[in-house]
């Protein structure tokens, strides 16, 4: 068994195991873990310095997850899915959910309703359905592999997907969204990088949310990918109690550049059920963006975006480009539609 598979097998997955590690009461967590699965690699758990710190908040279940009753799928991904596992929101690109598994189940996950649960239609015929849809839709030039985490697939399985996509003439680029450089850097092996290198143009977006996540092992994993010619971007989620602070955010973005990862998106928290305690006001993100501009390199400044409910797509925000109406914001999406966003 590969090292990274042994690490996954040794992960913490029950309230009782977690309680023993952190010296907390497992009883309030048991029902929660049955509803929203738990997994934390022991190395990621070691990054916790004290209860409630930025690493703790991202991975340790919180009873507040059970009292937030937003929609489970506010981005309308199910409606935008022409075949199982494929999301076609924008004309020239699709998101393909090839895995429901992650090394760590983040408590703020936008797909909290499905990650860690059994993946309907994985592999075989359903992969055929996704490939057939992409191959017969010539407007698709960009395929984003997501999940879960695509790098929780083994090398052979992942290569099968990449090879089949590369055989489609109109697919110009492939992107992979993964948090393994943060939560399971051991997954980024030399063997994996040699395989990925065969399928350029290939891009990887990873997901660092706090400067403490940029460990020596994480930096080494990113270096291996970058040395394989893979451009690296980062998508950060704005999280209350984690990174909703200009100083923390600036340090994160600067450290990302130091390990050859370009900041790409800063996401306003999606209105996903079970994640309400992570949400900040939009004004917090605008304040952070204002603190970054002019005070650090332009390369260190991501796009601050809201993913509008109802499948309306990502809307970039600038400090002077948001119109307020009462408790709502009026935003303009990529189609030129005016979208009303409730600023909770």
Automatic annotation (TrEMBL):
Domain Radical SAM core: from-to ranges: 88-300
InterPro entries given in the database record: Aldolase_TIM, LAM_C_dom, Lys_aminomutase/Glu_NH3_mut, rSAM, rSAM_sf
One Pfam family from the record: LAM_C
Cofactor(s) the protein needs: [4Fe-4S] cluster; pyridoxal 5'-phosphate
Superkingdom: Bacteria
Keyword line: 4Fe-4S, Iron, Iron-sulfur, Isomerase, Metal-binding, Pyridoxal phosphate, S-adenosyl-L-methionine
NCBIfam families named in the record: KamA family radical SAM protein
PANTHER family documented for this protein: L-LYSINE 2,3-AMINOMUTASE (PTHR30538:SF1), LYSINE 2,3-AMINOMUTASE-RELATED (PTHR30538)
Family of this protein: Belongs to the radical SAM superfamily. KamA family.
Name of this protein: KamA family radical SAM protein
Species of the source: Geobacter benzoatilyticus
